[in-house]
Amino acid sequence: MTKIKSLNDLRAIKANVEAKMNLRERSDAPEKLVQIKVAMATCGIASGAKIIMDYMVNELDKRHIPAVVSQTGCMGYCYAEPTIEVTLPGKEPIVFGYVTEKKADQIIEKYIINGELVEGIIPVNYESIDNK
Amino acid sequence: MKDLSLHILDIMQNSLVAGAKEIGVEITENKDADTYSISVKDDGKGMSPEMARQVTDPFFTTRTTRKVGLGIPLLKENAERTGGSFDIISAEGVGTTINACFKLRHVDRQPLGDIAGVIVLTAASYPAVRFRYTHTTRFGTYTFDTKEVAEILGETPINDAQIIHFLKEMIVENLESINYTP
Question: For residue A59, what are the domain limits?
Answer without folding.
Answer: 28-125
